[in-house]
Amino acid sequence: MxxxxxxxxxxxxxxxxxxTSEAELFQLKxxxxxxxGTILILVIGLVLRLxxxxxxxxxxxxxxxxxxxxxxxxxxxxxxxxxxxxxxxxIATRPSFNVVWTREDAPNPDEVVKRLAPILHEDIALxxxxxxxxxxxxxxxxxxxxxxxxxxxxxxxxxxxxxxxGVRIEVVSARDYQYGDLASHLIGYLNxxxxxxxxxxxxxEYQGGDPIGKQGVEKILESELRGEPxxxxxxxxxxxFEKKQVATLEPNTGNDVQLTIDLDLQKAAEDALAGLAGAxxxxxxxxxxxxxxxxxxxxxxxxxxxxxxxxxxxxxxxDPLRPLTNKAIQGQYxxxxxxxxxxxxxxxxxxxxxxxxxxxxxxxxxxxxRDFKCWKKGGHGTISLRRAIAESCDVYFYQTGxxxxxxxxxxxxxxxxxxxxxxxxxxxxxxxxxxxxxWKLATYKDKWHEGETLSISIGQxxxxxxxxxxxxxxxxxxxxxxxxxxxxxERIIRPGGEVAQAFTPVVQGKFKGSAGxxxxxxxxxVAVVNSPGxxxxxxxxxxxxxxxxxxxxxxxxxxxxxxxxxDTPYLYRDHAWFTCYAPAERPLIAVTVLVEHGRHGxxxxxxxxxxxxxxxxxxxxxxxxxxxxxxxxxxxxxxxAGGD
Amino acid sequence: xxxxxxxxxxxxxxxLSIAILLVAAMGLTNLYSATYTPGGGIPALFMKQxxxxxxxxLMILVVVSFDYRVLISFNYPFxxxxxxxxxxxxxxGDSIANTQRWIDLGVIRLQPSEPAKLAMVITMASxxxxxxxxxGFGFKELLIPMGLTVVPFLLILKQPDLGTALMMxxxxxxxxxxxxxRWRTLVTLGVVGFSLIPIAWHYVLKPYQKNRVxxxxxxxxxxxxxxxxxxxxxxxxxxxxxxxxGFLRGTQAHLDFLPENHTDFAFSVWAEEWGFFxxxxxxxxYCLMLLSALRIAAGARDKFGMLxxxxxxxxxxxxxxxxxxxxxxxxxxxxMPLPLFSYGGSSLLTNLIALGILINIGMRRFQSGx
Lengths: 644, 370
Known about the structure:
The structure holds 2 protein chains of 2 kinds.
Chain A: H1 8-18, H2 22-30, H3 32-56, H4 58-69, E1 70-75, E2 82-83, E3 89-101, H5 109-120, H6 124-133, E4 143-149, H7 151-159, E5 167-176, H8 184-187, E6 190-192, H9 195-200, E7 211-213, H10 216-220, H11 222-226, E8 230-236, E9 242-249, E10 256-259, H12 263-272, E11 278-284, E12 290-296, H13 301-304, H14 310-318, H15 327-330, H16 340-349, E13 358-361, E14 364-367, E15 370-373, E16 381-384, H17 385-391, H18 394-404, H19 406-415, H20 437-444, H21 450-457, H22 467-479, E17 482-484, E18 489-493, E19 499-502, E20 507-510, H23 515-530, E21 547-553, H24 558-561, E22 575-582, E23 589-595, H25 601-616, H26 622-643
Parallel strand pairs in A: 2-10
Antiparallel strand pairs in A: 1-8, 2-3, 3-4, 3-5, 6-7, 8-9, 10-18, 11-12, 11-23, 13-16, 14-15, 17-20, 18-19, 21-22, 22-23
Helix pairs in contact in A: 5-6, 12-25, 16-18, 16-19, 17-23, 18-21
Chain B: H1 6-10, H2 14-35, H3 44-64, H4 71-92, E1 94-96, E2 99-104, E3 109-110, H5 113-129, H6 139-157, H7 162-179, H8 183-204, H9 207-217, H10 226-238, H11 251-254, H12 266-299, H13 303-327, H14 345-363
Antiparallel strand pairs in B: 1-2, 2-3
């Protein structure tokens, strides 16, 4: 192509260009070298930067790119069940659906909450409060906005998935309390882990919002019941929408816990205590297995689930029936006349009495400068061991106790497990109190007065015991003096059915006295129920010989309200005890009942124990039978009338 | 009349052509990945870019068929047309994301600020080629080129498109430095320029633009907002490691963590999927392209050709450098495409035509006169 081909304009231009001197062109050409240099230096700068990002810090960024896209959604393991000794579940587990929201996926909570509030039927402010509470969590961690939503809400949320960025449904296992509050003190309940509990746990084991056992077996066997949470690794896009499930780590279902409790017996015990405040303990005499452990009133579980409100907490604290206390293991009461068993054993073994030793009861015993009264105003006359136990003569035991002395008496009490915790697998057990002269000196800086020995000989004064302790003492008396640790858990079973751990009876001690002395006392205990004049005649069960001891524990000094028992305010009424075992010939079960402010052991506590025993021995309730028979008769009569 | 000169073919720059083809291949491959959605077939944007490429290569053939020296005559009409288009875009342009950058031409949408870059290069080359460069330029002689720069600068700034507007200044600066400015003038311009920075900061820059500058120094200022781009881009680049995650395997890009991953941030997808070595290969090809272009500049047979080739090198280099530095978190986020890589017809055609002009200059280096 020749320049001549172009028009005159270009011709002129080219002519002018041609005027560029070779020298100037040469000079300009050399200015290109620093240009090349500058470009290369800057490109090397970029290469260094790439090296820094991709090689030096590469793994850091790689990690961040991974956490950028993968969300770990925890799958809380199905919790193990808690069943009775026969494997009947006391509480079941069901899936529960929670609404969770991940901040990192959708940074603007207002928008999400605005859309979510009408679906959940919740206040916007309330949902924002929940977000604020959890705002310390890392942004990738899902926050719970609402627990346990129903199916309709669940479907609604799933259908609106694309309007709710960052919102997901989390499945957790929740408890189904099919028997209501049955054994609630024993079983406990689940709630969200508290920040304090979370801080105590190893990092990563729990996350905020995880359910955790708060009391009873749920708490103590938390690690067995909980199982191991799994996780779904979800790949999400920048808007938090799920792209695909990368991997799933299946959760390991928790182990089942089989208790020694018998569902029927527990129900019978709780039914018998209905409307009362008190406790029932029933154990196997020869193993220490607990068949029933009831404390009335039960915890009202419904008020605890999802966090207890201040008002209902205060209501429970102020309730005179004290529903928060597990009275079977935490209630400490004067043992009252049930303690006469100890006094009798101490007297026999220390040789201060024999079965034939007789004391005279005139209705009171003068000691020091006051009268120590017997509950029977007219007195028992001349009385020896068997009748003294059967009729619970106070004077007889004043005399015996006085001769044994406080410290020797304490030795026998302790050898039957008093004054220390039984070691039952439950929290906050109380140990009661067995006074000694040394104890009094240490505690009150005062020497022991013999008059106090009289009081403690009949289980008043400083003596304090729990129903569980009394029952263990009774079982030891029945089985020949072996003290078993109360056993609550029979076995722990893996999800496959394999036994992870089996519990066996644990012997904690042996009564220090002779077997003969125990036999003599047992003879008295049989008389309590079965002889005329025995204090617990109404406990008698056809076909089964029950042996037991009543007790009536003073709450305030007797003189204060003696004359007006009938009108004594509830809180000043005596506590009623009854502890027993059966069958007397070959003891299998020990039952102990305490009814707070129930007044008389025989009339208030005895019938409760009787109902439990009847259930245990499968003896139909006569009253029930009678009602049934009457009904049948009425029906028959109606039928025959109709036939005429 | 159209007599074909064999020497034109003989002087065809093979290195430059190979470099262009390699960069173009990488750019298209990467765009495929950046716009790919599983199960979505061949991405529509990829196809569009492919057509732009084909059209662009055709344009190169057209551009090389006439002597580059005609440009010196068509320079002012071209410049004037671009300025008119910029005004038109401001007045009647399509408003996208609160900016007035596009003119709808029915079939395609033209972004006049892209050809404006090339118009600036040609205008500067043409202006300075007529002046003697021996003594160095003083303030008075620079008044005209400065005026020619400020007009498109302000029009583009108004869109607003800070990156492209600054590119006008960068082209002027690169050209002026090359033709030599007197020391006193340079110092004066420098002082005035620096003293304008605080004024620009307070009165010209919009809050989001200030934020972009601030987050460069501390991306944690606003990790969900302005810092997001930088943070996500750095994660994408860094997580590529030595060899990359593989074609179509970039999680940052494909899970939408990376905004603008097919336009300004296209190279982060490349870095994530091809790793450090992939990036080195790209830089090597791009450098090959620039060095070939510099050789053409050095071999140009006249001042206009040399200045034009040099200006095109500056255009290609600065766009790439600013874009890459921004992606790697070294410069604030501004609108700046990576030539031949970023999606966009206006940018691609402008750069391909610029390359065509380069080839043209290279082909005609033997024609020293008639």
